[in-house]
Amino acid sequence: MSPKPLLDLICPAGSLPALKAAVDHGADGVYLGLKDNTNARNFAGLNFDEKTLAEGIRYAQGKKKKVLMALNTYPQPATLPRWHQAVDKAATLGIDAVILADPGLMAYARKTHPDLRLHLSVQGSATNYEAINFYRDRFGIQRAVLPRVLSLAQVENVINNTPVEIELFGFGGLCVMVEGRCLLSSYACGDSPNTFGACSPGHAVRWQQTAKGMETRLNGILIDRYADDEKAGYPTLCKGRFEVEGETYYALEEPTSLNSLEMLPEMYRLGVAAIKIEGRQRSPTYVAQVTQVWRAAIDAVKQAPDAFASKATWTAQLVKVSEGSMHTLGAYYRPWK
Amino acid sequence: MMKLSLGPLLYYWSREDTLAFYEAAAGWPVDIVYLGETVCSRRHLLRLSDWLELADRLADAGKEVVLSTLPLIESESDLKALRKLVGNGRHRVEANDFGAVRLCAEAGIAFVAGPTLNVYNPETLAMLAGMGAIRWVPPVEMTHAMLKAMPIPAGMATELFSYGRLPLAYSARCFTARRYNLQKDDCQFKCLEHPEGLTLYTREEQAFLAMNGIQTQSARIYTLAHRVRELADAGVEVLRLSPQYRNMAAVVDHYRNAMTGETADPAALRKFMYADPCDGYWLGKAGADFLPEKAA
B211: closest CA among B181, B168, B161, B246? Predict the structure, then answer.
């Protein structure tokens, strides 16, 4: 048996070049999805077909890196066979683990491919150890990715009460809502992450220069409006400016990125198995830069956890590639809530 | 025979208002009443003992009573409260998290599978049936087509969220506290000032969402009374009405009349609503759409 992983670095691969960038810059594993709505980054131009998938697995595993496949949307009665086929494909191609959210799909995977390693996706919305142990008891999951809602003290309590490995988001786009329990996107435009595999999907987005400024809309709904000196962002609907009781502000969340770099020593001490970098929709250059910084930081922590100090150069590099160029510790830091 | 349920109270009302609401509800033509706090563990004007007392009173009035769990369980004290609720010994439980499902199954009690369990397919539903679920509430984005294609296990009833601002999302962050630049741990219980939620408008004054503590709701009120036949046709056996601060009795009557075959006129219902209606989810459209003339 291999030793229990500790701070494995899991990086996003939205494409074959991104996968190679992650592997070449120090990822311990990559996660990817197929070119359809079986995963929660169902965006045009992203993800893997049969050929690139085989090549990606060969490349990563050839360098002793793991390949995890996200099948983390919720299959529906009419389309269930496609999710089953995707699980079969993952097993046949020798994927190291599949990342699932739907219990029905886990039941299928367990029954059909008993040796296939199962991870609980963040889309499964498991925020407490009773929920995580439910998936372990029934399906034998070996790892759970926690939604970005718990403080580190709460994470510690989870780790102390389950044998399941815990993976945390370390860096990237920040969902302010519990993943898997957010239907804002389908309310606005009909497609949600659960059913369609994307939030605020591109086909519903409109950018329009008007006399009042650049307007971004989702299915006609005004998400934000930018003055000439402001940089317009993608209209992710929870990150727009809205009016509440006559005041206009980022009512739900600013366009920030999560960056938990400074909490690495604490995550190490707690026994966090893996750190996940968000961003399958981002470029290979982004993946390379972020992977490189986090590799260096994790190595530094492992070498001397007590002496760890987040380097200014690391932060500067991360800020350069961040959404909105702002950072937050998110829910790991209690006052954020 | 279709039944009517009163869903869990999503808002934070004063103790007096809450007790008065359920006192009145005992006399309304609803078959099932869900009780308990399903949004924020900081809300404490009614403790579990208060909810249990209410539960007994409503049961005496002939209602089936179900105690609902929090959908977002984060801390050990949340788990402690959950264990107490599951172990109440008298009333059914609505499990809104798989942690709650696990505890109900361990205790061997029949439960209702709540809307935040994300049941979208027959395999997940069959698993829940096997673990003791006797009723399920689909995710609020459930469409007519998806529900019709869903084989329902024997002994399992379908209950659909059919009236009220849609609970769309949950967060660790409290948006109501944020509105007043307060931290969640010192929120001063601002939710008490917004008994119907705090409406969020776009910058062109379109009502879009409503903030209710850590929950984000639709600004529009989901309304399916005019679609009772389609609901029955898709196998829905219970219509869930989400409590609102004013005119709830009139809303209940409107749905009750619709269930007995009267044509339901959305314009007549609108008089009792504090926001515009929507029915898009049922049609497989954007949830915010309202297309009463269109068949599902």
Answer: B168
Check pLDDT > 90 for residue A94.
yes
Task: Inspect the interface and report whether the beta carbons of A253 and B173 lie closer than 8 Å.
Answer: yes
Q: How confident is the model at residue A42, as a pLDDT?
A: 84
pLDDT beyond 60 at A1: no
pLDDT in tens, B148-197: 999 999 999 999 999 999 999 999 999 999 999 999 999 999 999 999 99
pLDDT of residue A2: 62
Specify which residues B32 forms β-bridges with.
B5, B64
What count of CB pairs under 8 Å joins A to B? 209
Note the pLDDT tens digit of each residue in A117-128: 999 999 999 999
Whether B207 maps to a domain, the answer reads: no
Residue B185 lies in a domain: no
The domains located in chain A, with CATH, are 8-174+256-336 (3.20.20.70), 184-249 (no CATH)
Give the pLDDT mean for A181-205.
93
- ipTM for this model: 0.97
Residue B108 belongs to domain spanning: 3-166+220-283
How far is CA A176 from each of CA A65, A245, A255, A330, B172, rounded to the nearest angstrom? 31, 22, 10, 8, 8
pLDDT at B262: 86
CATH number of domain containing B31: 3.20.20.70
Task: For residues A139 and A126, give the distance between their C-alpha atoms in angstroms, rounded to a whole number.
Answer: 14
CA distance A5 to A52: 28
Q: Which two tokens stand for residue B54?
A: 């209410």
**What are the structure tokens assigned to A10, written together?**
């899991």
| C-beta of residue A101 within 8 angstroms of C-beta of residue A81 | no
How many angstroms separate the CA of residue A255 from the nearest CA in chain B?
Answer: 15
What is the nearest CA distance from B190 to chain A, expressed in angstroms?
14
Q: Does residue B229 sit within a domain?
A: yes
Q: A161-166 contacts: CB < 8 A, separation 24 or more?
A: A161/A129, A161/A133, A162/A129, A162/A132, A162/A133, A162/A136, A163/A136, A164/A120, A164/A132, A164/A133, A164/A135, A164/A136, A165/A4, A165/A5, A165/A273, A165/A274, A166/A271, A166/A272, A166/A273, A166/A274
Q: Looking at the partner chain, which of B118, B122, B211 has a beta carbon nearest the beta carbon of A180?
A: B118
- What is the count of structural domains for chain B? 1
Structure-derived torsion over alpha carbons of residues A72, A78, A81, A83, reported in degrees to the nearest 10: -10
- Beta bridge pairs of residue B221: B165, B277
Asked whether residue B213 is assigned to any structural domain, the reply reads no
Q: Which two tokens stand for residue A157?
A: 């309590």
Tell me if B102 and A195 make a contact (CB, 8 A cut-off): no
**B34: part of which helix (H) or strand (E)?**
strand B32-35
